[in-house]
Amino acid sequence: MNESTARSHVKPGPSRRGFLVAAGLTVAGTALATAQGRAGAEPARAPVAGAFRVPVEDVRHTRTWMAWPDSTAIWSGGSLGGVQADIALIARTIAKYEPVIMCANSASAARARSMCGSSVTVLGSIPVDDCWARDTGPVFRTDGAGGLDAVGLNFNGWGGRQTHGKDALVAERIAAYAGVPFTRAGFVGEGGAVEQDGAGTLMATRSSLLNGNRNPGMKQGDLDDAMCDAYGASEVIWFDGVYGQDITDDHVDATSRFLAEGEALVQMPLASDNDAYAKDARQQHRVLTASTTATGRPMDVMKLQGPDYDRIRSTDPDFLASYANYYLCNGAVVCGQFGDAAADAAAKGVLARLHPGRTVEQLNIDRLGAGGGGIHCVTQQQPVP
């Protein structure tokens, strides 16, 4: 369960949390931390030459990691089979371009192999609670000299909202399987909560990370330091975000993405939309437009128009229709399409222009979207060292 928050023109209320309430798996939310002002009040630290850092996502990958859902408690009401079909479709599509390893519980590995096909490697030795590999998997880092390591973000079930005994161990177990050194970050978070440009700049929402359910009592400056240490960065661009409306508390990667140093995109709502997420998207665009990178470069911010929720296929009030939640793999951009034909085509065209030389694979992932997630949410890249 990763980034369920770039929606516009949608009824207020919880997204993936709605699934968890039905399953009886949520816990009472802890007190939310208060926003503490823009990052950048202190001088940005200088990057260390040769140090490990998380690269921008368009670098070449060794493989993609995914996770196979099998819990009828989490995916209740008969939704599990459809979500599994969407996960298998995503895995098969990515496997046309690069290797995919699917982590699965041993009891469901055979079903995963049957649905994913022979092009996907299913690994029954890394058990999982759910499918959100972006949040549970390790964040891989490179040093520019052939080195690779991994960082775990201390996954705690999005602030204790879902059972996560297995998922809390996924990052370390994947790193061990990949044979790379593993360390734990100095903060609690999820991969979908942080975007990096690979050149020293991060972006994130306060609502997700500066939050008592992840990092109680942590001040923004301390969180800046911990995030920069983990990602090999020197500056964080903060957005306010949206507290308590979905299980992720507004992950940034459903709304805003880095393309390169000084280049970003924001999925924008319709002009007529004025719900919390529409306001959030506009605020993210304003902040990014006024920001500079860690090296002082002004941000060039592209707009990616979101769909009209009255024209998409799904009528689920918690549906996530995020084009911005796409995944880059070797030679392809894998993104969602939601049934608003004009918006789907326009988004495909924009992504093709922004990522020249890559095939745009647009997939119907409506069952996953009804769970409040997207393609970036369920994938984690392992870059080539």
Task: Record keyword descriptors for this entry.
disordered N terminus, four-stranded mixed sheet, L-arginine/glycine Amidinotransferase, Chain A, Agmatine/peptidylarginine deiminase, about 375 residues, single chain, alpha/beta, 16 strands, 11 helices, three-stranded mixed sheet
Walk me through what this model shows.
The protein is of the alpha/beta class. The chain has one domain: L-arginine/glycine Amidinotransferase, Chain A (5-stranded Propeller), CATH 3.75.10. It has eleven helices and 16 strands. The strands form five sheets. A four-stranded mixed β-sheet has the order 3-2-1-16. A three-stranded mixed β-sheet has the order 4-5-6, covered by helices on one side. The relative contact order is 0.21. Residues 1-47 have low confidence and may be disordered.
